Amino acid sequence: MVEFKIERTTTPTSAEQRQALMADPKFGRVFTDHMAVIRYTDEKGWHDAKIIPRQPLQIDPASTVLHYGQEIFEGLKAYRGKGGAITLFRPEANAARFAASARRLSMAELPEELFLGAIKELLKVDHDWVPSNPEQSLYLRPFTISNEVFLGVKRANEYLFIVLASPVGGYFSGNGSIPVWVSETYTRAAPGGTGEAKCGGNYAASLLPQQEAADHGCSQVLFLDAKERRFIDEMGGMNVMFVRKDGSVVTPPLGGTILRGITRDSILKLGRKMGLTMVEEPVAIEDVFKAAAAGEITEAFACGTAAVISPIGEFRRESGSVAFGDGKTAGPVTMKLRTALCGLQRGEEPDPFGWVHSVSL
Ligand SMILES: *Cc1c(COP(=O)(O)O)cnc(C)c1O
């Protein structure tokens, strides 16, 4: 076990201030007092693991990440269950995906033990920030940047791994169904590209289509496959699922361009356990427009750690739109899956999968 050096802030947020900040934290703007940091160099490997007061970084303007974008991240949540215990949901799956992202971006791979250790050590120091409101959680953002001072294009020989923690409410403001823009202009990921890696660059490329969506009154974008623009891949930061009239649930298969969502995988397994038919098969966008209009597809939802399960009210594109169900409220299968998943994540439901880690403080 690697020892983390713990350096506590001398100016901690008071309980009163914290309460005010956590009353309605929204998403990603409120941060805890500390952060985890581990350094890497080719000579020393991963070293200098510590928990320190949250503070700005000092990096050289020639640092490689600022020029060539070697950056990967993860997103997971710490939950507080009814009894007050703090849980993590499948954090080892995040560690494994983080390592896979590092390989694709040719970055130093962080061992799982360090990934989990950094999160647990940070939680020990900042556990007061895990909300007890069941609508909220503590979002954890592990990420690695390359940090060599060099303008040549090559794999960097220095890296910095950091974990930030941020108490959050729902990802989407309001709790109704979201309208989603189907981008026919832009794609997110091509075969052989970085679609399966959780890297900042993918998000940078999604911001213009995101703007296009906003111009059409949509808060999210749906991307189609880059080859034929025929099949549904996923949304900018969430996977997508559809519910058919017979109650079966269908989602596009993983094939290199879709991010391997842990929420996606959990819903597939949980749904099967609940007796639902869960199908992974290519979903053509034309078929969805037709089937939703004909009432053959009755529900659609986005899924991911930040969004959990968010109902999709309608798809919009240049040639028109189509609603799922009544276009406003979450359907029964969406709600059933959401309730089951949330109960499991908070450690309030039996966990036959061994997914829930309780964090000992
Ligand atoms: C993070 C992410 C998801 C969701 O993954 P989870 O593990 O469920 O949080 C889906 N798509 C993209 C592009 C993502 O970056």
Model description:
- Pfam families: Aminotran_4.
- The modification N6-(pyridoxal phosphate)lysine is found at residue 198.
- Acts on leucine, isoleucine and valine.
- The protein has 361 residues and is α+β, with helices and mostly antiparallel strands.
- It has 2 domains: 5-168, Aminotransferase class 4, branched-chain amino acid transferase, N-terminal domain (D-amino Acid Aminotransferase, Chain A, domain 1), CATH 3.30.470.10; 178-345, Alpha-Beta Barrel (D-amino Acid Aminotransferase, Chain A, domain 2), CATH 3.20.10.10.
- Helix content is 25%, strand content 29%.
- It contains 8 helices and 18 strands.
- It has helices at 15-22, 65-68, 91-104, 112-126, 200-215, 262-273, 285-293, 332-345, and strands spanning 5-6, 34-41, 45-53, 71-73, 76-80, 86-89, 137-146, 158-168, 178-182, 220-224, 232-235, 239-244, 249-251, 278-280, 297-304, 308-317, 320-323, 356-358.
- Strands 1, 2, 3, 4, 5, 6, 7, 8 and 18 form a 9-stranded mixed beta sheet that branches. Strands 9, 10, 11, 12, 13, 14, 15, 16 and 17 form a 9-stranded mixed beta sheet that branches.
- A hairpin with a 7-residue loop joins β10 and β11.
- The longest helix is centred in the middle third of the chain and has 16 residues, at 200-215.
- The structure holds pyridoxal-5'-phosphate.
- Pyridoxal-5'-phosphate binds at residues 75, 198, 234, 237-239, 259, 261-264, 304-305.
- Pyridoxal-5'-phosphate binds next to α6.
